[in-house]
Amino acid sequence: MLAVVPPPVTVRVPSKINLHLSVGDARDDGYHDLTTIFQALSLTDEVTVAATEEPGLEVHGEGAKSVPTSEDNLAWRAVQALAEHVGRSGDENKVHIVLRKGIPVAGGLAGGSADAAATLVGLSALWRLDISRDELAGIAATLGSDVPFALYGGTALGTGRGEQLVPVLSRHVFHWVLAFDQRGLSTPRVYGELDRLRADGDPPRVGSHDPVVEALASGDPRQLALLLGNDLQAAAVSLRPGLRRTLRAGVNAGALAGTVSGSGPTCAFLCEDAESALEVAAELAGAGVCRTVRVAHGPVPGARVVGGEDAP
Ligand code: ATP
Q1: What ipTM describes this predicted complex?
Q2: How remote is the CA of residue 257 from the centroid of ligand 1, in Å?
Q3: Among 8, 47, 222, 254, which residue has the least CB neighbours within 10 Å?
Q4: Residue positions in the annotated binding site for ATP?
Q5: Can you give the pLDDT at residue 2?
Q6: Confidence band (pLDDT; 50, 70, 90) for 202?
Q7: Residue 144 CA: which ligand 1 atom is closest?
Q8: End-to-end distance of the chain based on CA atoms, in angstroms?
């Protein structure tokens, strides 16, 4: 009897920005406790997983050349982690993965984490696993602290290393302009720079996240704009001083406010509405302060199968 080969599964997965990122002091193990508010944005990657005799990984799109195709790729780590969790081994795990990247690599938008989350969701459908999103989130947390959020999407408060999530009510669609820098920034390097800045002085820290939660519930972008804050911004700007100019240019172009997303170097600009975002994007693109510009909105859902009968 011929074995039935299941059709490939494609998953779309959002990027994230941090509307608020409070970073605690370095712990003895080198990690930092975080309090962050994530929002999932419509700038996405697409991940296709297919059963195959010849496993492999292809990467296309934004920054494809700098993405490892070896087992260092977070998508491979997701395959391994899920297979171990459900006790699959050998030939059963042979998959071909195609990553179509819209999210810039090492941009502070958690693109690698997004691909890991998408791979978990794609394989759950491909392998017809009876597994809940919460169970997947447990596996996701072992892969990286931003991976669980990419599964759920929306807007959420993250604590611990960012992996302990509580949804946050967000009443409005917020419109963003994203400015991509020429090159990525290494997340560990940015944390190291923050530790150095704190050892040398006392850079200002963001306050409580409570007002941000209130602004999200009110749905008023002007209120939210006053509260965007990121403890990693000073470190990212210290390593990449040109970001100061990018942040200024976005506000000069008409954005309500700008912030470095996560460890940077992507800058995210909050705009009044969709029309204003298009205007800000056009002006920023002409200002020569960044490699490229995208508009996006949020919140959007987490990793989802697209098309086909497997879509939940
Ligand atoms: P974070 O803020 O979560 O650290 P980031 O958005 O700044 O992430 P990523 O795009 O996730 O950065 O990439 C960080 C590094 O991870 C890259 O330099 C790359 O070597 C590695 N990496 C592993 N898997 C992937 C993947 N699927 N896509 C992109 N980068 C990947």
Answers
A1: 0.94
A2: 26
A3: 222
A4: 104-114
A5: 56
A6: confident
A7: 3
A8: 30
What is the residue whose two structure tokens read 């890991």? 116
Token digits of residue 95? 């998959």
Closest to 55 (Cα-Cα) out of 84, 85, 80: 80
Tell me, in angstroms, the distance from the centre of ligand 1 to residue 113's CA: 7
Pocket flag, ligand 1, residue 110 (CB < 6 Å): yes
What CATH number labels 174-297?
A: 3.30.70.890
CA distance 15 to 188: 19
Q: At residue 31, what are phi and psi to the nearest 5 degrees?
A: -80, 165
94 is catalytic: no
How far apart are the C-alpha atoms of 311 and 54, rounded to whole Å? 26
CB-CB contact of 309 with 126 (8 Å)? no
Whole-angstrom distance, CA of residue 125 vs CA of residue 196: 45
Q: Is the CB of 105 under 6 A from ligand 1?
A: yes
200 is catalytic: no
Question: Ligand 1 atom 29: the closest Cα is on which residue?
Answer: 112
With vertex at residue 155, the alpha carbon angle to CA 163 and CA 289, rounded to the nearest 5 degrees, is: 95
| Cβ 146 under 6 angstroms from ligand 1 | yes
Which tokens go with 49? Answer: 């997983």
Beta-bridged to residue 156, according to DSSP, are 38, 167
Beta strand 9-26 with 304-305 is antiparallel
Judge if the upstream peptide bond of residue 148 is cis by omega within 30 degrees of 0.
no
The reply to whether 174-297 shares the fold of 9-168+300-305 is no
Q: Rounded to the nearest whole angstrom, what is the distance from the C-alpha of residue 110 to the centroid of ligand 1?
A: 6
9-168+300-305: CATH number: 3.30.230.10
Domain boundaries, the chain: 9-168+300-305, 174-297
